[in-house]
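Sample 3 of the quickstart, ligand zinc ion:
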Amino acid sequence: MLKDIDITNKTYSKISFDEPNICPMCSHSIQPILLSNRLHFYNDHTNLGCFSAFFECTHCHKSFISTYDIEHEKTSSSYKYYKATKLLYSVPSKFKQQNFSDCITVNYPSFVKIYNQSLEAEHYSLDEIAGIGYRKSLEFLIKDFLILHEGKDENKVKPTALGTCINTMIDNPQLKIVASRATWLGNDQTHYEQKYTNQDINDLKRLIKLSVNWIEMIYLTEEAEAIEKK
Ligand SMILES: [Zn+2]
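Result:
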C-alpha cells in the first residue's frame, strides 16, 4: 500500500513509498506497522540516496528493515518531497526451501539438495553461482532418472555429457524438449560469455521445474497403468 509520511531524520521532508505486503520472515500477507524511518544521502551534493523503513510484522511480530532507492520529486515552499522508486531488499529475510513431491524427494535426493542450495544462494543475492548450481541440479536429476528409472548403464551415463545423455537416452519427447532447453540455458550460466541474453535464471528454473513435472507425469502414468481392469 502506498504511504505518504514525514521523514524522521530530515525536517520538512516527506516521502511516498510502497510498504511491503509480504513479511520476509514468516511470508504471510501483511500490512506491517511502521516503527521508524531514515533517509540517507550518498553524499552532500546530490539527491541520490536510499530510504530505510523499520517495520513490525502483524502476524509473527518480528521486525525487519526495508530499503528503497529514492528520487527527489519536488520542493514546495515548506516541504521537500521524495519518492521511493524501488524496494532494494528487506532484512532479515528467512530462506524457505522449495518443496517437491514425494516422488522427487524419495527418488532424487541429490537433485533436491543441490536445487535448494542454489535457491538459497539466489536468496542471498549470490546470483553468479546460483545459476551454476541449478545447472548441476539438472544434471543429477536427468542422470539419476536415466540410471534409476530408465535402467541405463551408470558407467555410460555418468561420464557422458548431459546434452548427449538427453539426446540419445531419453525416450519421452516432452521431457527431451524441456531438459535439452534447460541444459542450453544452464550451460550458459557456466560460460564466460552468455549466448542466451534474452533468457535469465528464472527461465532456467522454469525449465528445470518443467523437467521435474514431466518426470512426475511419467511416474504417475505408470501408477495408473498398474491398475488392472476387474
Ligand atoms: Zn511475519
